[in-house]
Specification:
6-stranded antiparallel beta sheet, 6-stranded mixed beta sheet, about 400 residues, globular, 14 helices, alpha/beta
Length: about 400
């Protein structure tokens, strides 16, 4: 499945914004324009759709209450709204599902977020629509307490659209911090829910069936060799004494068996690449990547789009990926098409979302890269003098 379209009303930076999405979408924009908040919109839907411990109340509370979610520019329409269109196929011609959620404060007592409206529409192969859910309904009017929950989060209410709920609930966000993975045993402590920073990545590998794990690591090994030719083999092992899971890489060396390193000796960039490639293969739902260029040298960053395509090649079902980035090296790839780029444009009335212009599309079709054509208008207009520290 694939999210083909999103609309946001009063969500964080976005007073009113909408965008079309592709199999791989790159989100560009100046600092503080809302790139992380754009990704968080999908995480919010994921948190609502979880059947175990999720839901509207927890999702809003985890973000610091409704006042921190609602756009500061909200005026006549105070409800926060999210609309997504989802297609069953990775190369869609039309949406298969449409989910709409608008919520607001109950305005009294505990100031809980309540559902203002919720709708699910199913489209058949001919584009005919059938409304599966339209709230508030008669039951909601009898018991207003029902509006503290969405139908999306309730397994007894989402039967007709459960594939949509499960797809949204399985969205993955990752912003791997290599040090948390390298020193997970020493750091210990509680991992954040959904482990967005990769502290439990090795446990994730350990839970994977042996055959699947070997196949994925072999595919990762091949991809790594194209950028780190010294690597000969990548393996999953368990410590003979402690039983703890580890990754081992054998590198070319003057010794007959080569030099072996474990993950705590890997470079930060190597760890980020391994986790990125693994997650691309791990699921079928949406994958959110925040600034994957961190810890990687520019030569590898410039090859990331091709490396992602290599890892996905031959996969029966590929993950949709949304990537936020500042990197000119990443966007120097001339193979990135204009329809896969979203440009966030901040203003005094909130952030809007632009697609490429006709002139930019022409330049891209002529062989120029997004870094040359599009990135300049997605950067902060800050001069060196403005960056000087004033004592």
């Amino acid at each position: 499945m694939l999210v083909s379209h999103i609309e946001m009303q009063n969500w964080r930076n976005f007073k009113s914004a909408k965008a079309d999405l592709r199999e791989v979408t790159y989100v560009l924009g100046p600092n503080a324009s809302g790139k992380s908040n754009f990704l968080d919109c999908f995480r919010f839907l994921r948190d609502i759709a979880k059947s175990n411990g999720g839901g509207l109340q927890k999702a809003v509370t985890a973000r610091g209450a409704l006042k921190k979610v609602r756009c500061l520019h909200a005026r006549s329409k105070p409800e926060v709204g999210i609309i997504v269109e989802v297609c069953d196929d990775i190369t869609p011609e039309r949406p298969s599902w449409r989910y709409e959620l608008f919520f607001n404060s109950e305005g009294k007592g505990r100031q809980r977020p309540i559902v203002a409206s919720e709708k699910v529409v199913r489209f058949d192969e001919n584009g005919q629509r059938r409304v599966l859910l339209n709230r508030p309904d008669a039951e909601d009017n009898k018991d207003v307490e029902r509006l503290t929950q969405t139908a999306l989060e309730q397994i007894q209410a989402n039967l007709e659209f459960r594939p949509l709920a499960e797809f949204l609930a399985n969205t993955t966000y990752v912003h791997l911090v290599p040090q948390l993975l390298k020193y997970a045993d020493e750091i210990g402590g509680r991992k954040l829910e959904d482990d967005p920073f990769g502290q439990g990545f090795l446990e994730r590998l350990a839970r994977t069936p042996d055959g699947t794990r070997r196949s994925r690591l072999k595919r990762i090994e091949v991809a790594l060799k194209s950028v780190i030719p010294q690597i000969e083999k990548l393996e999953f092992v368990k410590d003979a004494i402690t039983g703890l899971p580890h990754l081992e890489a054998r590198y070319k060396h003057h010794r007959p068996r080569g030099a072996i390193q474990r993950e705590d000796q890997f470079s930060d960039g190597t760890l980020r690449l391994i986790s990125l490639f693994w997650l691309i293969m791990e699921g079928q739902s949406l994958l959110l990547l925040e600034e994957p260029e961190l810890s990687l040298n520019e030569e590898i960053v410039g090859r990331l789009p091709a490396l992602i395509a290599r890892v996905q090649k031959g996969m029966r079902r590929r993950r949709q990926i949304i990537i936020t980035t500042h990197s000119a090296a990443l966007l120097s790839n001339a193979g990135i098409s204009g329809d896969s780029l979203l440009i966030l444009v901040p203003s005094d009335e909130g952030t809007s979302i632009d697609h490429t212009t006709e002139a930019e599309d022409t330049a891209l079709a002529s062989g120029f890269s997004p870094a040359e054509v599009v990135l300049p208008r997605a950067q902060n207009p800050v001069t060196g003098r403005q960056l000087e520290l004033r004592l």
